[in-house]
């Protein structure tokens, strides 16, 4: 959320020529100032450099956090970051379930700020959303948050003001269960994945407004058409492109902002910096992955190590072992691994394959393992545009993946595709579009969305690896409440990529009215994604209990990623009175208006 | 010369066909997924509010849907040699506004020998009417050689299926003058940065304007081809070739004045925006 236009102090530093590789890979010494020229010294004079790498841990019940602009250098171009206690990531807050925590937040920035405790159940006044929970924290002011800790697990916190989350204001929260650990591991590492740009985020958004494909360097080209024509025939190549050309949509619009400007970070460390998590051979290691990126979905794997997913969005889940998982902005996934006496690369490629975050899991410092090449980007499929109306494509591939068919590929036989399409059809539900979805704010509507939660999503289909899907995640303990929902509300995720506008039901926040939930009611929420991007939807203050298409309980989530042309449903217990934010956790989508207020009263 | 004319006429006919496609597509299946009008039983997006208001006691957040964005685009700034003289055609556009309503300034013309040879400047209110289309209403001012002319302008601009950029504007001026302008272009990506852009433009007038050398009917048509390299998205030098032909009364007036109604030129220029 935006309190004021961010000042442009980020851009006051001189630009130096930076090689492309150095830029993507970042500096090995990220964050440490080496040989600063006299010109940039005035900026650095504002404070000590940002410390990066494994975040410091703060324990207890009383916390003092200072939010300030501190200098950082990830690419050879010094910039100012917005940081918590001078580090990226901010300190890991270690709480104990049952305690009451007090957090005194001092704003040393030149603009208003806030901290939001993501996934934490707090009274709404403590939720940290300016304009909904409280007025925000003015420059120079100290705000005190205080609330009882009623849960345990892995969470995170971040600024909910301006673009501060993009410029470094995020950290992890780890809450120890009151009754002792429910998951046993010999070693524990928090791993925050993020994206960093040297550009002013406001400028990034302005560029997207002028040319929404600005950062996409994987667009359809004429030579690719002729290559396809040789393989598929002229007609085949034309048909492959027909629906994209007719709708003016792009099959490669996988990330609005790419490695063209982003350097992807693992615990505030560039790929060249190689964040390293240590273990002693024989130990089981719990890795608490946090999607702290402003815009980026990461496809995460550790070649050579199966990942046993045990905890998702702060909830213990029935263990499921996979090779790879997709982690979107605001999601958290805890995995257990059993490394042998050798180094392993933790590899998190961006969903659009324009770059990656990378670190190493090693028995000793200084070791590295082979870093894989990024995969070839896939095109969005017909099912990503037309949902259950599409014959084949995504559903078939997803089917093959979950069936463990390592030989599955995009060109899998037509019969499998038709089978899957029929299966999808059986479960197909008609979407109920809002009257405001027929205007200029909405570039696409899906009449019969797909409901296949077992689809790992574009880029992961049929890649030969076992990929986690939403159908695989089952929260231990079942739903919070056995009541059947009293009513159902349906909202559509909408946007216009060309205009770069994002909304619910075709209405940006500025034109919206709040969604009202009666205090104490249990209701079903249906989200239909009418866009061609995946949106991680975060409902503040209330759990989102994801259901399978047949209504079976799957998982208690704080953030649910809805794929293109997909319909998901979840149950909500409206047990926390007050005003709550509900938004897409892709920062520029939220800031563009894909945002609602929920009022529970 | 007649070869050039045939080429331009064919390109123009093809472009007009393309321009008519959006309406045709609206009837087709894809069209059902985009734009259109809401059925009577469409969901009320405010129904879930139950009359609830936003949280009181704090100022409601203001997001980017209330922000005024702005842009300055120099789509063409080029130099060409015409009969030994360097002319500098330009085409710029500036806009300021929110997502669905913007003020737009367009200026297109040609400098020769340091003088403004000819320019068409328009000040328009662009209003989004469909996912890919804006209506444009405003004024046009023609300056340069001959007496200046002022027009009211009404048109549409947007992206047609198959990603053709189209612009169609009608004008009404003093002394019941009327005009119609059509502009279409397409970006063909040879690589992610090397882009071939064909463009056609045609101008029609409803009445002779001898003082400005314009005759009734199709006055001129241009077929242009530019190959640009996007060093950055914002900065792309290009080379190109342009054929411009005059027709009917306009052609006659040019001939009578000793001019050449048909022109083929090589251009060198750059595209820039910020």
What report would you give on this structure?
The complex is a heterodimer of chains A (601) and B (274). Chain A is an alpha+beta fold. Chain A is 13% helix and 32% strand. Chain A is built from eight helices and 33 strands. In chain A, helix 6 (394-402) crosses helix 7 (414-426). Mean pLDDT of chain A is 90; it is low at 1-18, 31-45 and 392-425. With 274 residues, chain B is mainly beta. Chain B has a twelve-stranded antiparallel beta barrel with strand order 1-2-3-4-5-6-7-8-10-11-12-13. In chain B, a hairpin with a 3-residue loop joins strand 6 (149-160) and strand 7 (164-173). Chain B is globular and about 75 Å long.
Strand order within the widest beta sheet of chain A: 13-12-15-20-17-18
- Tell me roughly what share of residues is in helical segments of chain A: 10-25%
How many individual β-strands of chain A?
33
pLDDT < 50 stretches of chain A: 1-18, 31-45, 392-425
Largest sheet of chain A: 6 strands, mixed
Shape estimate of chain B: globular
Secondary structural class of chain A: alpha+beta
Work out the helicity level of chain B: 10-25%
Number of helices of chain A: 8
Oligomer: heterodimer
Percentage beta strand of chain B: over 45%
What would the keywords be for this entry?
heterodimer, A: 601 residues, alpha+beta, 6-stranded mixed β-sheet, 8 helices, 33 strands, globular, disordered N terminus, B: 274 residues, mainly beta, 12-stranded antiparallel barrel
Short description:
By secondary structure, chain A is of the alpha+beta class. Chain A has eight helices and 33 strands.
Helix and strand topology:
The complex is a heterodimer of chains A (601) and B (274).
Chain A: H1 20-25, H2 41-44, E1 51-52, E2 57-59, E3 62-72, E4 79-84, E5 87-88, E6 90-96, E7 100-107, E8 116-118, E9 142-148, E10 153-158, E11 170-176, E12 187-197, H3 201-210, H4 222-247, E13 262-266, E14 275-278, E15 285-291, E16 298-301, E17 307-312, E18 315-322, E19 324-327, E20 332-337, E21 344-350, E22 356-362, H5 382-386, H6 394-402, H7 414-426, E23 487-496, E24 501-504, E25 515-517, E26 522-529, E27 535-539, E28 544-547, E29 553-557, E30 559-562, E31 567-573, E32 578-584, H8 587-592, E33 595-600
Parallel strand pairs in A: 1-5, 2-6, 3-7, 6-11, 12-15, 14-22, 23-26, 25-33
Antiparallel strand pairs in A: 3-4, 7-9, 8-10, 10-11, 12-13, 15-20, 16-19, 16-21, 17-18, 17-20, 21-22, 23-24, 26-31, 27-30, 27-32, 28-29, 28-31, 32-33
Helix pairs in contact in A: 6-7
Chain B: H1 2-26, E1 69-82, E2 85-97, E3 101-112, E4 115-130, E5 133-144, E6 149-160, E7 164-173, E8 178-186, E9 188-189, E10 194-205, E11 217-229, E12 235-246, H2 248-256, E13 262-273
Antiparallel strand pairs in B: 1-2, 1-13, 2-3, 3-4, 4-5, 5-6, 6-7, 7-8, 8-10, 9-10, 10-11, 11-12, 12-13
